[in-house]
Amino acid sequence: MELKILITGKNDNVASDLLEHLKADTEYNVVRCAPLKSDLFDALLDESPEVVIICLGDETSETITPFDMLKNGTHKGNCITIVIANEKDEKLFLRYTKLDRAYLLSRPVSYDALYEKLLSIEEEVVKEREKNKSKVREFINERPEKEYKRKHILVVDDDTDQLLNIREQLKEFYDVTLVRSGDDAFKFLKKKIPDLILLDYLMPEKDGSDVAKELREIEEYADIPIVFLTGMTERNAILDILAELKPQGFIIKPAKKSELVAKIIDVLG
């Protein structure tokens, strides 16, 4: 089996050495990303790693915060986290992290200890996969006369916190996919057509109105319902877009759960 490992953290020297050692010594799939909330968010969505290794260096309480993304930022649940740090940074991490669990490895790095731990993680992952394959599961159809399919909502917003908040609000009722730009939205649309798009009006490079116009010009996407997410200062501009592109409406940010769900029900039923 090949573990997928994501390396991140401020300590560039340790992270670079670790990347070099893992690629030379193992067959694991190893990638690296910057220790920023937005970069971690994208990496977790794109890579779905089984293990994340954080290389700490000269940290503050603010630089520890982005790693809380590992608690709920993946599609497949929490990944296993290994933290490499000196005594000072380790204490700071333990004080400010919101992670439920992490393995700690002191510097200088003992690669024997690290490889031993990765091997045990690999064995656990394989065991869990095999257990899930063979597990007997019972299905009871509680609504045999009524077929129900969860609607799929695509949320497009460059604000990572906003994306995670909307997913938390909607996940009880809908399948939710999050992307951070118009270009990422079109990449996703090539794979799957959602039932509705929640589209941030103001984004860098390609804003919501540009994305909406492009959607309406492509026959395959022209009929997808669009609801804009907008701040109060953009409301007048949104009204002009409503007249021009005829989306299904707009929601003022930050939206309450009841407002989001009510609008989606209004559009989709």
Sketch the topology as an H/E string, one letter per element: EHEHEHHEHEHEHEHEHEHEH
Shape field: globular
CATH architecture of the largest domain: 3-Layer(aba) Sandwich
Q: Give the N-terminus to C-terminus distance in angstroms.
A: 45 Å
| Helix and strand composition category | alpha/beta
CATH superfamily of the largest domain: Response regulator
Summarize the amount of helix as a percent range.
Answer: 40-55%
By DSSP (H or I, 4+ residues per run), the number of helices equals 11
CATH class of the largest domain: Alpha Beta
> In angstroms, what is the radius of gyration?
22 Å
Task: Describe the structure using short key phrases.
single chain, 269 residues, Rossmann fold, five-stranded parallel β-sheet, 44% helix
What does this structure look like?
With 269 residues, the protein is α/β, with parallel strands linked by helices. The chain has 2 domains: 4-134, 3-Layer(aba) Sandwich (Rossmann fold); 152-268, Response regulator (Rossmann fold). 44% of the residues lie in helices and 17% in strands. It contains 11 helices and 10 strands. It has helices spanning 12-25, 37-47, 61-64, 69-72, 87-96, 111-134, 160-170, 182-189, 208-217, 235-245, 257-268, and strands at residues 4-8, 29-32, 51-55, 80-85, 103-106, 152-156, 175-179, 196-200, 226-230, 250-252. The strands form 2 sheets. A 5-stranded parallel β-sheet has the order 2-1-3-4-5, sandwiched between helices. It has a 5-stranded parallel β-sheet with strand order 7-6-8-9-10, with helices on both faces. Helix 1 links the parallel strand 1 and strand 2 (29-32). The protein is globular and about 65 Å long. The model is unreliable at 73-77 (pLDDT under 50).
